[in-house]
Specification:
By secondary structure, the protein is an alpha/beta fold. The protein has 14 helices and 14 strands. A five-stranded parallel sheet has the order 7-6-5-8-9.
Length: 315
């Protein structure tokens, strides 16, 4: 990543020396390759749309996590959805668009929003594109499930804001910390069960999930990768048969306690639970929602460190 940034710096420097116009190709370590021409930035978003943005004046961000990322990239959030409360600082001049899945489109149009950042993983957001584009509002969709996805998104955002320094701070510098934590894996390949709990249920997640990917990076073997049936049927019989070395759980929803009560009801109350290796050896961990359900953004290094400490001991 550092090499890419240095190359870009050389290209820009040469352009300045020969008096060329502001035109350069900026490449991230991803399929997206933002480019700028006369101040405009063109890129391909995560749904495959070609997007050109030219110094947006009023940006709506329809996700708390993406609103945080936009601010980290030096952008100003003009409009937000309810889930951003507690994630970013809400100011009086910011427009509340309501719920994450049903943002107020009429309000965006009436308030002259000119750029909207949406989630490509939310079907209701995807359906908004035609309406917004027809109203002359530029849209960009992102899907973030791991650090590489985050880096790709931040490359686009910092090119729009022209803040390469914030890409260095919030992406490149984080990579060194993440690699430091990954290097702590000792080759033991511990087996893990990763659970997401909410007020009405508990699900096992595999290595394709955000935290599952981090555990895999840290040398773990996820039993849900080996036994796909766990993804649809959280069977205690299967868990006992696999007997994981570690069990991790994170919560989602408004009530952490309601989510943990569901873990108690569905799993911990089962007599077989106490016989699991992870339980007997005190290797059952509840992970903070803000780092393991929501996207960590500039705290990815912290997320990796927490897992590495639990797996291989604190340093």
């Amino acid at each position: 990543m550092k090499t890419v940034i240095k190359v870009v710096g050389v290209v820009l420097g040469l352009c300045l020396l020969i008096g060329c116009a502001k035109t350069a190709s900026l490449s991230a370590s991803s399929p997206q390759s933002p480019s700028s021409a006369a101040g405009a930035v063109t890129f391909t978003d995560d749904l495959g749309h070609s997007v050109t943005v030219d110094h947006p004046k009023k940006t709506a961000v329809l996700s708390g996590s993406y609103a945080d990322a936009w601010q980290l990239a030096g952008g100003t959030v003009a409009a937000y959805t309810d889930d951003a409360k507690g994630t970013i600082e809400i100011k009086n001049d910011m427009l509340n668009l309501g719920e994450l899945n049903t943002p107020n489109v009429e309000s965006m149009i009436a308030n002259k929003i000119d750029f909207v950042i949406l989630s490509g993983a939310i079907s209701q957001h995807v359906k908004l594109r035609d309406t917004l584009e027809s109203a002359g509002i530029k849209t960009a969709y992102f899907k973030v499930e791991n650090f590489d996805d985050y880096a790709r998104m931040m490359k686009v955002m910092t090119n729009i804001t022209e803040r390469a320094d914030l890409y260095q701070k919030n992406v490149t510098d984080l990579q060194a910390e993440i690699q430091k934590q990954i290097s702590r894996a000792d080759g033991s390949k511990p087996t893990v069960l990763f659970l997401r709990a909410y007020s009405s249920g508990v699900k096992a997640l595999n290595s394709e999930s955000m935290t599952g990917k981090m555990l895999k990076d840290l040398g773990c073997v996820n039993i849900a990768d080996q036994q796909n049936s766990l993804l649809s049927d959280l069977s205690m019989e299967t868990i006992v048969a696999k007997d994981p070395d570690f069990i991790f759980v994170t919560t989602m929803g408004d009530s952490k306690q309601a989510a943990l009560d569901m873990v108690q009801k569905l799993l911990i109350s089962n007599p077989a639970w106490s016989g699991l290796k992870a339980v007997k050896e005190n290797r059952y961990y509840v992970l903070p929602k803000e780092l393991f359900h929501l996207k960590p953004n500039n705290r990815w290094g912290e997320s990796y460190q927490i897992l590495a400490d639990d797996l291989y001991g604190k340093k």
